[in-house]
Amino acid sequence: MHALKVTRAEDFPEWYQAVVREADMAELSPTRGCMIIKAWGMGFWERIQGELDRKIKETGHENYYFPLLIPLSFFAKEAEHVEGFAKEMAVVTHHRLKSIDGELKPDPEAELSEPLIIRPTSETIIGDAFSRWIKSYRDLPLKLNQWCNIMRWEMRTRLFLRTAEFLWQEGHTAHADEADARAETALALEIYRQVAEDFLAIPVIPGEKPENERFPGAVNTYSLEAMMQDGKALQASTSHYLGTNFAKAQNITYQDKDGGISHAHTTSWGMTTRMIGAAIMVHGDDDGMRTPPAAAPRQIVIVPMLRGKPEDEELKAYCHEIVAELNKLFAFGWPLRAHVDIKDARPADKRWDWVRRGAPLICEIGPRDAANGQVTFIKRNALREGEKIKSHTLPRADFIAQATGLLETAQKEMFDEAKTRLQSNIRDGFNTFADLERYYGTDDESGEFKGWARVHWSRPTGAALEEVGTRLKALKLSIRNAPSAQPASYGTCIFTGAPAVEEILIARAY
Amino acid sequence: MHALKVTRAEDFPEWYQAVVREADMAELSPTRGCMIIKAWGMGFWERIQGELDRKIKETGHENYYFPLLIPLSFFAKEAEHVEGFAKEMAVVTHHRLKSIDGELKPDPEAELSEPLIIRPTSETIIGDAFSRWIKSYRDLPLKLNQWCNIMRWEMRTRLFLRTAEFLWQEGHTAHADEADARAETALALEIYRQVAEDFLAIPVIPGEKPENERFPGAVNTYSLEAMMQDGKALQASTSHYLGTNFAKAQNITYQDKDGGISHAHTTSWGMTTRMIGAAIMVHGDDDGMRTPPAAAPRQIVIVPMLRGKPEDEELKAYCHEIVAELNKLFAFGWPLRAHVDIKDARPADKRWDWVRRGAPLICEIGPRDAANGQVTFIKRNALREGEKIKSHTLPRADFIAQATGLLETAQKEMFDEAKTRLQSNIRDGFNTFADLERYYGTDDESGEFKGWARVHWSRPTGAALEEVGTRLKALKLSIRNAPSAQPASYGTCIFTGAPAVEEILIARAY
Fold first, then answer.
1. Which residue of B has its CA nearest to A343?
2. CB neighbour class for B309 (10 Å; exposed up to 12, middle 13-18, buried from 19)
3. Which domains are seen in chain B, by residue range?
4. Which residues form the Aminoacyl-transfer RNA synthetases class-II family profile domain (chains A, B) (predicted)?
5. How far apart are CA A115 and CA B31, in angstroms?
6. Would the CB atoms of A153 and B95 count as touching at under 8 Å?
7. ipTM confidence
């Protein structure tokens, strides 16, 4: 009945793999733990890049590019940072291969005197540059960004969600004082919120991570948390206020107006190709991906009903004319992206390919449409009425005039649908840890949609927080964040029974 | 007198380093052989990316992303390819660090069973994907592109020209037959010619590389050759027809219409951040970089003559209004990029910063300009009259109305200037090798501008070609390419005295 062989209800993880594969977004590569991002996945990432890059630049950041490889000694500088990252990283030890006994091997004579690490993140090498570039308060704030690949060795991989190599941007800034650096941390999180909600139609909850989930070396870590269709949470990007920790480790100082020397306050923040996985798990359905129109590589796809006959040329011309007119329009602040699919394949197969990829508007145009000057189309985000595919027909001029509006409406419908799901699946009313145990501890393997818990706590630290983590872990739960929007008053802590000081979200997570 | 401490005439290599540094384009990093690309250099690369990516997509290619790391065994498949590349590459041997005797080291227990190579180019791993994706003639042509970082270990580095890590795009395509693959090879070279000439104002000569300069494993390699201001040649991009060599090594086959199985014909082609170095050496002058307007990150920069007084606000508003109007315009097919520099620094220092970076139009606007409703500006490509800086003044409305035209004119002037230099410095009339020796063998160390030699040859192969290479190398020369535009008839070969069959270009090169 549906385009995929497995449904979300039957097996959510299998369904996810099926969408990634059938939508032609990515596949595993022969390099262990690394993915090949295919055309539709890469096009989606390019749209995210375009939108996010524009916002990053509009807010006064400039793009730089720093080396892929970082000398090992750099990781020894910030103690907490090493502790957090120094474990699973790809290490380059040789710079030459040699044929030894007929086999290609690392040349023993070409061993590096100091091993190089493939960047797992670039605070250390960018901090080193900051220490050279920043001399005076006039050099601050220094606000830069980098688009690149990074690598964190992962044993269990899942396309887009957890792979050894992935793509991201990393913002790095230095400021004269704490207030300016904190404002920057908040600005980055707000930019991410806009991209997630307005561009990817993914509703998110911004908030602060608990102490034990901070980025290694950070003073505060903030995240966006999004809800997947299986009720799990996915961290959709992070922004860190690093205080003067990295500045002290790397000697990032500046001379202020009065001639005194101070340490700069730094921040870092990143959004990754993981967002593609998030979009799939928020918007996909049993027919495949539903790509949010703002971010779809192709927003309107026309499949001409070609029949290998001379009349085909006329039909193709009709389709190309419509696409040419559509591509003069703007949608979501970018030129509209329409496309005629003239691949050598059966029209019905092509239509289903675009359904699985989730092109927002898919037009099937036959000779009758051309003769009547009309366009027949389906809306991917509202594909079916009951089990039947629902198609619409409009006069050509009306379709073109309404195209941007149709895309905007679809975008809004997708956001509203996801927002309703998020809001109606955050559960209150847990007064004790036993309440939480009762709710999440039963039917553990049923896969039943449980959503998130919103609870109050006394914000324990250190060993007490570790214990909270252990108790939650037994239920496969974790603290997601303390939402930025907090209530006016608090009850008692569900972990300690003490008066609570904060509201937090608890969930299973990717 | 001039903005740089060293002139082109005094010391061209030193001058080049000074431009890269003073224009804030790049610097060496603490990672040996790797560069940090700074804001103005990265902005320039982003403009090249934007233009080239648009052309690549318009001609039916889609972007993919393949793994950074390639299993060592992949390099053993195409024998000639290994021979050419298997030497200087970064080798990953471990996936974890461990603290051993208080020192971070590669964990001996985390040694990879098969070393991984940081891609020096991606034919092998993309070919492997092709062998899985291509089944039928309906899957062909398969035309894809990737933007990424690559690594080739280099001992002597020069910013943008030769570094261990650099950025590029690599196109990879598979075709049913030779004709289609050859057409693709030519198409890629033509796209590169357009980007070089129309976008970067760098005149180039397309042609075929001699047999001994082919990409390892290629049947034919084509290049664009550009002339630097010191008379040396720089290879400005390459396009390879790979025949069925890679297809045979990697089993890339398809079923044709009649059910037979054939090997696909493949191509690959690339353009790199080296183009930034080329643009500097073609367009730079003794005041720094002159950025071609089409590719300049900021095309029009306004420096308000702020004096730390209340009137500053009015002046800033005037400048911002002009920039807002300019940024509504289009130039070279993209939105125009104008900018007000309100950095906390002396206006004269800021003006010189933009001169050294080579912003095409630099406006210095003071209270008198604002009061008179006018714009005072300098054209970076025609900065001086004699030794004096030449400035221009236009009424505000005229400046805005003429802005696109001023940029287009500057672009054309820069191209024409470089084209004239190229054409007038290719020397004919070498009838024997002794002629060549006489010309290039004298004043070898004087640094005198010698340009290129256009000679006829009998296209020797194998050992005879090696000998030609050796003789040329003694004069520090090499064969650049056999231009696509060939004469109607040929004289005798300057190397062998035999009847010639081809015209080639000989030069010193980067």
1. B138
2. exposed
3. 12-283 (3.30.930.10), 293-422 (3.40.50.800), 426-507 (3.30.110.30)
4. 45-292
5. 11
6. yes
7. 0.96
